[in-house]
Design goal:
By secondary structure, the protein is mostly helical. Helices cover 57% and strands 0% of the residues. The N and C termini lie far apart (59 Å).
């Protein structure tokens, strides 16, 4: 149905990485990453939404303009390409960094720092194909120490 082919698969791969990162953040109870990842997944979901066609059947009895019948208002979501998903993620990152600069300018460095951390969490997912540097000394091999 969709003609995006590999682009759709790559877009689903990015979304899968976001969901996997979200699961890890939930396990770690990393509220900053959780917030950023949920927001990015919502933005991608919203971008795939389409305006439903006008109801062809009778309106619902209790809500004006409601479609009657099981699945009557269901519509297929727009399939996003890898470029679409990447652009959405870049916009999410850019928006956080721009807002962080505004918070710095207005004397709210704590809020600015949180937004930078959210941007970093999203950047880490977009750079998932790039080999990661060790996180810190806990990842270093232990030489003779118990």
């Amino acid at each position: 149905m969709g003609s995006s082919g590999q682009g759709g698969d790559a877009a689903r791969d990015v979304q899968a990485r976001l969901r996997k990162a979200l699961a890890g953040a939930l396990r770690r109870r990393d509220t900053v990453a959780i917030s950023a990842l949920r927001s990015a997944l919502s933005a991608i979901g919203n971008a795939g939404a389409v305006t439903p066609p006008a109801a062809a059947g009778p309106a619902g009895a209790h809500i004006a303009g409601a479609a009657a019948g099981l699945g009557a208002a269901e519509t297929r979501r727009r399939e996003l390409s890898e470029a679409d998903v990447s652009q959405i993620l870049q916009e999410e990152i850019s928006e956080r960094l721009a807002t962080a600069r505004a918070y710095d300018s207005s004397g709210h460095p704590d809020r600015a720092q949180r937004l930078r951390q959210e941007a970093q969490a999203l950047t880490a997912v977009t750079a998932a194909d790039v080999p990661q540097e060790p996180a810190g000394p806990s990842d270093a091999p232990h030489h003779g120490r118990p």
